[in-house]
Prior knowledge:
Number of strands of chain B: 2
CATH topology of chain B: Arc Repressor Mutant, subunit A
Order of helices and strands of chain A: HHHHHHHHHH
Distance between the termini of chain A: 48 Å
Oligomer: heterodimer
Helix content of chain A: over 70%
Radius of gyration of chain B: 13 Å
Strand content of chain B: 5-15%
Amino acid sequence: MIFEARLFNQYDLWIDLTYSLIVSISCFLIYLKTKELYDLSQYKGINYFRNTFLFFGISETIRLLLHLTAKFSAPLLPVRPELVFIFNACSFLMIYASCMALVYLLLSIFWKRMSNKSLGNVYLAHYISLIVAFVSLLKDRHPTFIIFQAGLFVLLIIVSYLNYKKSKHGESFSNIYLIYLLIFILWIVSNVMEFIVIFSPITAFIIYFSSIIIFLLILIKVIERLK
Amino acid sequence: MDKKRSKLEVIYDILDIIKKNKNSIKMTPLLRHSNLSSERFGKYFSELVEKGFVREIDDENGKSVTLTDKGFTYLEKYRTIVSFIDEFDL
C-alpha cells in the first residue's frame, strides 16, 4: 500500500514532526480563538473559516501521530499486520480532513454568492470527500484526492478573481487572497509529498518551512484582529 | 453592505438603542427608533431573546427590554467582528 511505503521513506523525521506540530497547534489556536466571535455573531463566514482550520488541524494531528507511530512500530509490521490496517484507516481520515479543510476555505469566501439551498449541501462535500479518500486509498498512488484538491484550487482562482473585481478594499483584499492561494498550493504540494512523490529533502524543507510561515501569518493576523 | 452584514448591523443598532436608554426601554419606542417594519422588528427581537442578548422585564411600569451581559459583550465586540470579517473577506 502507498502509505506504509511512503511512511518509511520519510524526510528527516524531526523536520516532519516539527512541521506537523506547529501547523496543527496554529490551526487549533485559530479555531479556539475565534469561538467567541462566532458564538456572538453566528456569522456563516466565520463558521466556515473556523471549520477550515479545524480540519487542517485534524489532518495535521493525524499525520503527526501516524509518523510517530510508524517510526516506533516499524519493526512490528511483519508480525502485526493489523498495524497496516490502522495506518490505512488513519490516512483515510487524514485525506478526508485535508479535502474538507480546502472545501471550507473555499466556502468561507464563496458562501455570500451561493443560495441558502446550495449552502445546505455542505453535507454533499463531506460525502464527496469521504468517497475521494476511499478511492485514493483503494489504489496505490492513485491521485484522486490530488485531482479533487486541484479542482478546488481552480475554483478558488475563479472566486478570487470574481471577488477581486467586486472588491473595494484594494491592497488588503489582494493580500489575504494571496495568502489563501499560497495555503492551497502548499497544502496540495505537501499532500503530494506525503502520498505520491518523494521530493528531495531540500525541496521538502522549503515547502514545510513556507507552510509554517503562512499558517503562523494567519494566526498572527487572527490574534491582531481579536485584540 | 451585503445581507448578512446588515443583519449584524441591525442587531448592533437595536442593542445600542437599549443601551443608550439607560438599559431600559419600552417596546414601542424601541420599534420606532430601530427604523424597521414591525414584522422585521418582531423577527429580530425574537432572535435577540432566543440568543440571550436581551430580556423582557415586567414591572409596575409595564413591560420593558434590557440588555443581558451577552448583549453588552456583543456591543463591545461588534467592531472586532466587523473588522475580522473584512480582514479575511468572509
